Structures are given as C-alpha cells and as structure tokens.
Amino acid sequence: MYENLDDAELLRAALDAMNREHNADAVSLLKILVDRNPVHPYGHYLLAAEHMQLGMVDRAEEGFARAVALAPDFPIARFQLGQLYLVKGDGALAKSTLAPLADLPSGTALASYAKGLIAMVDDDVSGAVEALQTGLACEQEILPLAGDMQRLLANLMAPTEDGAFPAGVETTMSAAPLYLSAYGKTDP
User: Fold this and answer.
1) Which end of the chain is more exposed for a tag (fewer CB within 10 A), N or C?
2) pLDDT in tens for each of the 188 residues of the chain?
3) Tally of CA atoms within 13 A in the half-sphere of 80 that contains its CB
4) Does 48 share its domain with 122?
5) Domain identity same for 96 and 170
6) Same domain, residue pair 142 and 57
7) Same-domain pairing of 50 and 97
8) Which residue range is the domain that position 161 belongs to?
9) How far is residue 5's CA from residue 152's CA, in Å, rounded to a whole number?
10) What is the model's pTM?
C-alpha cells in the first residue's frame, strides 16, 4: 500500500499519524521507512519515540541509540536517550550521553536542560534548579519539552529536610518519556 511513497512522503504520513495519535499507523509507516532506509536517523528517532509512547522501553532505547549513532549531532535524540537512561536509573550512561549537549552554545535551552539532568545525576539539586531555570528563560524551540522541564523544576524546588531529591522527582522523570513523541512532531 505504501510502496509508491518515497522517504519524505512516508515521514510526512508518519508525522500526521503521530499528530492524530494513531500510534499503530505511525509505527507501521516508520518501520517501512527505516527498513527501506536504515541510515535515516530521524526515522529511527521517531520510531523510538513511538515505542516509548507505547511503553516499549527497550525498543525505544535501541532506536534512540541508533539515531544518535547515525547522527551524533542530533541534539533532541541525544537528549531523549540521556533522559531515558536517567529514567532507567543508569546515571553514568545518562551523564555521558548528555555531556555533549552541555557544551552547546550558552543561551540554548537544551544545553541548560542537559546540565540540569547531569546535576541531578550528581545529586546537585541547586545546580539542577539553576540550570533548569536558565533553560526555561531561553527561547523554547520544543514547547512540550519546556513543559516537562517546568514540572521537573517545580518538583526540585519542593523543600526537603535532608537535602535529597523530593519524592515527586522520580515520578516526574518516570513520566517524562510519555511525552517523548511530542518532541518530534515537527519536520526535521
């Protein structure tokens, strides 16, 4: 049925299916795209986001990692892979994945968000709060991501007596991947 569509048409149709929350159609179209063009980083990225949306964490991890391997300078794919590692509890891998993003030009929201997540790995709540506030003060290219970072910041700013992360932070980070596909619903 889709054999007459080229890569750009498959991608556009998949994005349309994602925007309509037709996950099965989006997954089918993206699978065709990456089977036909296995070096299409955006196709792997979107397929991983759909897998995450469906709760298929291992497939999502594999897809985000593939997208980053194909395009190491694909910042949102790298960010989401780092975020996924953080959610899975692998702080060291999250930190090494996010580190290149922290070196993006200052004034870049994604760089500040990456610094905030790295600070979380290091149990540096004040550093995480400062970095997230800085990121939120920047121009926002991805509004759903900004919303996730605002919720995370609100949880981090909740005071605790022992200085540990507030209980709600884990919930926020666990819930964040539910929004991953929303980060990619625009053209590459």
Assistant:
1) N
2) 777 899 999 999 999 999 999 999 999 999 999 999 999 999 999 999 999 989 899 999 999 999 999 999 999 999 999 999 998 999 999 999 999 999 998 889 999 999 999 999 999 989 999 999 999 999 998 888 999 999 999 888 876 666 555 554 443 444 343 344 445 554 44
3) 37
4) no
5) yes
6) no
7) no
8) 90-188
9) 40
10) 0.83
